[in-house]
Amino acid sequence: MTRSSRLALAFAMLIAAAGTGFAQAKTSQPITVSDAKQLVGAIAPGKTIVLKKGDYKLSTAYGVKSQWVSWNDGDDGKELSINKVENVTIRGADGARIVSDSSLSSIIGLYESKNVTFDNIRFVRTPSKKGSDVGAGSFYAESVQGLTLDRCSFEGPTTIAIELWECSDAAIKRTEVSGATSGALSASYTKGLELNACRVSASEGYPLLYLEESDKVLFKGTKFEGSTGGNFIEIYAESGGVDSVAFDGCAFKGNKVDYFAGSSILPSTVNCQFADNSFDENWESDSVAPASDEEYYGTDKGTADQADMGPLTYKHASGLSFTYPQGWDMQEYTGQSRVGVFAPDGKSLVFLLTAYQVPAKDQAAKQAKKAFADAYAALAKLLKDETGVLLSLKADGEPYTDNGLLSADYAGGATKGDGEKAVARVRLVSTGGSVQAMVALAADASSLEADSEIDGIFASVATTGEGE
Known about the structure:
single chain, mainly beta, Pectate Lyase C-like, Protein Transport Mog1p, Chain A, 18-stranded mixed β-sheet, 38 strands
């Protein structure tokens, strides 16, 4: 399961997934802009926006919001989030660059939209802190129909350059990807994707191209040069098959990877050229990963020992640990300040973060109700400010001690935007000078019931004796 490493965005979009509509408008005359504030302010349904040559630094426009545009917070910056628009084109003059100085937020996220085009845009990250590790991709699209990226470039440093989730009819044309460290392209639950006349170079990936439950994917006339990593392409589908994943007229040069393909599902290569790679035109017999090697990718092709390993354990920086089921995807922020685990079906998640610092004059053990009430209020404010998620929970019983940890439970719901809803559950845990919050959000109330997988995660919280 491939997901972006940004928890605030993930749980906000889980709730927003219930919404089905997006705004529509007739196209209008092009709007020409010259800075990031003007660009962000101009984004709306039916608009064609033309960028003059120059850098559009997103951090200068953080204060600009609208019905269509918001900002998803990361630890060191924000992602420009475009939501529920239709018939939008953002076109750059030669030399137009959209620039992010955040290492831990995507540059742009596009959600629940239709017929959106980015043309002649360079997506660039210039971290504000030199030497900081980059933990986010460049372009993320979710529930988008009719996405076009034409004459664009995605330059490192970046993790996954382009990531698609539940999209359809996506066309990536005459576009370059370079310097990606976690893959050039990831597409999950996406139907109809074509890369035409593109170039992928000097990137690394495990795998470089990842397709999960995605079909009708064509790489046409695309050059792949000088990349490294594990499998060049990994195709996974629970059903065990897809109709079509093909490379047609592509050129592979100087790529050094462990294998060309994973063994789950193989693509076809027609009229392709191979030169100085770790694989050649005989890749199907010489460069397919053995099934036992694919445990890295989280497929069902691992060994019997792997299947019997049971739940996985995560140790949080606060000194708490918890276990979560095999097959759930774990993501964390740098420094482990926040960590989340995501159900394979994408309909529920659990995350852990610091909710509240207990004032020195207070003692949580002696003033448990007050400490937990203050912590819940702080958590609710944090989620509202960062993601627009509104918690509506009530204390579920009295504070209690479990596994030696003073805790309190809250249960109820959460909303975002125009009535989009999810069920919610929170366990607050006192760890001396702070209160940690384990938060679960789910589309279905049954996911939070007793003996559910999430219930098991909540019950597994324990102390490691480390951290605070």
